[in-house]
Structure to design on (124 residues):
């Protein structure tokens, strides 16, 4: 999570509150909170940190352990898709900020949720 917080400093206070409440655990909940924070920033017209966030997510996918890579997909990307899809903002608005590997996993999530694939796998 610290890589994501470093990329999006406006999330730092919320991250500190999360750590106070849950410790460094419950990271999937934190990923959902992060997705909601990104949505708020986007809807406020403040996507300044999004390029850095996309780079951070790409690092998680390309440099992380298997658990970190899974968290980047199922925690962070799926969190963005889920949270944003319950708003007036299409999650696809976030897609251009992602690196190539992260875009592959984003498309894999889309295929899974549209029942085109029985599991999540990186696509094209």
């Amino acid at each position: 999570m610290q890589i994501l917080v470093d990329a999006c400093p406006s999330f730092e206070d919320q991250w500190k509150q999360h750590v106070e409440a849950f410790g460094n655990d419950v990271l999937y909940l934190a990923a959902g909170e992060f997705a909601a924070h990104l949505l708020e920033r986007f809807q406020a017209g403040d996507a300044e940190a999004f390029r850095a966030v996309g780079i951070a997510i790409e690092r998680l996918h390309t440099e992380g352990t298997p658990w970190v890579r899974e968290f980047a997909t199922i925690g962070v990307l799926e969190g963005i898709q889920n949270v944003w899809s319950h708003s007036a903002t299409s999650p696809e608005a976030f897609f251009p900020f992602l690196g190539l590997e992260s875009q592959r996993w984003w498309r894999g999530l889309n295929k899974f949720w549209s029942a085109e694939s029985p599991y999540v796998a990186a696509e094209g």
